[in-house]
Amino acid sequence: MTKDILLYDTTLRDGTQGEEVSFSAEDKLRIVKRLDELGFDYVEGGWPGSNPKDARFFEMARNESFRTARLTAFGSTCRAGTAPENDQNIKALLKAETESVTIFGKSWDLHASEILRITLNENLRIIEQSIAWLKGRDREVIFDAEHFFDGFRDNKDYALQTLTAALNGGADMVVLCDTNGGSLPDQIREITADVIDRVSVKVGIHTHNDGGLALSNSLSAVNAGAIMVQGTINGYGERCGNADLISVIGNLQLKMGRQCLDPENIVHLTELSHYVSEVANIPPLNQRPFAGKSAFAHKGGIHVSAIQKNPRTYEHMEPELIGNHRRVIVSDLSGKSNIEYKAREMGIKIDSKGSDSKRIVEKIKAMEDRGYQFDAAEGSLELLMKKASGQFEEPFALESFRVTIEKDKSGASSSHATIKISVGDEHEITAAEGHGPVNALDHALRKALNSFFPQIKEMGLVDFKVRVVEGSDGTAAQVLVRIESRDSHEVWSTVGVSEDIIEASWLALMDSVQYKLLKEMNRAEDPPKP
To answer: Which fold has domain 6-280?
Structure first.
């Protein structure tokens, strides 16, 4: 496939300048391999002259071979008053032993004069000589013109002189950087077009999102003739972040017809977004365009009714093209269309006359009025729908429970729970300790149910969240507890609401166990085919 646009990923360098974003050398290597599998052209591994971790990463990467990605080391020009061959940063770039290097230089006279405190001619010298030295060592050199758009607006002639210096040094490509992220799309397009008319090498774009326009600015530069886009996965980066390459690719390839990746790899972009989130240990943003969990989620009954007839009515593209999928959310805004859609999705049989749907909608709206939210608690939602349609009976019932918390003068605390449940005509009373009242209650419930339902032994709680539904009543306010559980087959979420945090936790916990038993019943009724 002939590519129209080169993709330059800087997640591992510029992305790590964002708050809470950090990768080990091993993390970086895993991400490079994933980007290489998908066909990215350049992956900036880091700044080997700035820290031991990046230097170690490049040492590790020397033993790897990549199919499509050209690993790139990043650094600055040599220091003022220093020859490139004597500059430690330039030496570190060479030591990284990458085919390509990217160096940045100041294109804004303000930075040269007030930050570096050097003459404008000295700034041009270090740009030209640094690039020439690296080119003489058989490197492809990409010049990142830092603060180019601000510099162009303040002093157009000097900004262009910095590009001339880079070209005189032999730069293979110049990348125009909107480092402060404050430019507008029209400015980006006009300035990029002006530069392309003046230079003889390929031109790239590097944008930041401080004005919320990193994506728009990247697309504007491409429309002006730029053939490389630099950015990060999920838009990670300093301050408000960089251009999100997931959205860049989605728009360029699927909307504008500019080939960035092999078509068969586009469907893995949602997976890539989530993978990088997981490695970075940052929860995925549900509202992220293209790849977010909510990107193709529908909540309003009118919307759901429409997409069942034709998804184009409320979706800008087929979610499967990017590896995402359509979701219908049930809430107090739902109509029967939402319920019928979810029933089909969950394999729940409801009557064709609509009485089940009506009953379920009324139940949900009443519960949401009390503070329940089923958007992210589909375990509780499926139980509710099954119960309301007469397809599930609670396998156990609570008779009573008691939770106590003790704290002694040493500061140590302990929690104890006693619970009495009934299963049919049988009763069970047990007690257990735990790290906190909910953990103790969980242990006691499992202990009581183990002899009746041994399959619950394999399930576990993986997350517990509490939120005040409405805070005007202070400590007497309604609280919502969401519990996430998992077994060897899946992960599910359940929810409980009460003025008492322990009761809310119990309701979510009970739903979690009941959902597990519901799924076990379904598997027993529909065993896998041999």
So the answer is: TIM Barrel (3.20.20)
